Amino acid sequence: MRDLRIVFMGTPDFAVATLDAILNANFNVVGVITAPDKPAGRGQKLQQSAVKTYALEKGLHILQPTNLKNEDFLSELKSLQANLQIVVAFRMLPNSVWKMPEYGTFNLHASLLPNYRGAAPINWAIINGETKTGVSTFFIDEKIDTGNVILQQEVSIDENETVGELHDKLMDIGSKLVVKTVQLLQKGAVKTIKQPEIEEKPAPKIFTETCKINWNADVNSIYNLIRGLNPYPTAWTTLSQNNEEIKVKLFDVKKEVISHSIPVGSIVASKTELKIAAKNGFISVESLQLAGKKKMDVKSLLNGFTFQPNSRML
């Protein structure tokens, strides 16, 4: 059995679950690398990453480099004498970092590689209407998410599942897969599979424009986009009413596939219900957020907000 000395790299909540699982499995984590503290909120107070908060609670040694090629950082990393590095939701590593440990550096990725390489695999799986996805552990190489795969586990996607729900499911399953991967490495029993070069389904970073709803699209596509961005970064549309345009974020919705002759983007509202016409059906809104307001359920909105007869979503 190998005596492992692990450096863990990660930033958001998704990574915390894995770090917690590694510690609970009694592996020796000699250092944690996470993002520098960043100003956030109205007061621009410095906010630490979820991984840093957890690592402080556990008394772990923390490094927060701004430049991963910095000589002082590389020297400090080397002094930890780690022989394995684990990466979960961090950033691209230079060769000088990922090549450092004797047993390599492996990553947890929230898809069944080679599908959905990139920054937003969980979002794109739902946006594209997939019925299954999964998690993969793989050794890091020069490119992004292309290294040899160690382990994979398939996960089904429910028809109405949101990205928030799938994120939490994959976070839990992924943390367990990382522990299995470390156990194999400890025994020297890892066997890897080379990934094919082909990349049929990418998962690029999501920008504001990606999140804009096209009401001319198929109602299933609109529904998948909204749940694939709920709760974050959130699908949005523009409400045109009384010569005013208001940005609206949509969260929880239902779909209704039905033939109709109502123009797309038209709003059908009653005292308790809000529906928006799409090409071959309706999106029924259950929660939303108007610009400058808090997120609310649609019944609360309809209590104090009136949609005019000519109102529509652009």
Kindly summarize this structure in a few lines.
The chain is an alpha+beta fold and 314 residues long. Helices cover 26% and strands 27% of the residues.
Strand order of the largest sheet: 5-2-1-6-7-8-9
Indicate the CATH topology of the largest domain.
Answer: Rossmann fold
Shape: elongated
Secondary-structure-derived class: alpha+beta
Radius of gyration: 23 Å
Identify the CATH homologous superfamily of the largest domain.
Answer: Formyl transferase, N-terminal domain
Q: Helicity range of the residues?
A: 25-40%
Taking pLDDT < 50 over at least 5 consecutive residues as the criterion, the unreliable ranges are none
Which percent range describes the beta-strand content? Answer: 25-35%
* Order of SSEs: EHEEEHEHEHEHEEHHEEEEEEEEHE
What is the typical, i.e. mean, pLDDT?
95
* Count of spatially separate domains: 2
User: Whole-Å distance between the termini?
Assistant: 62 Å
Count of strand segments: 18
Q: Treating each run of at least 4 consecutive H or I residues as one helix, how many helices?
A: 8
In the CATH hierarchy, what is the class of the largest domain? Alpha Beta
CATH architecture of the largest domain: 3-Layer(aba) Sandwich
Instruction: Tell me the major beta sheet.
Output: 7 strands, mixed
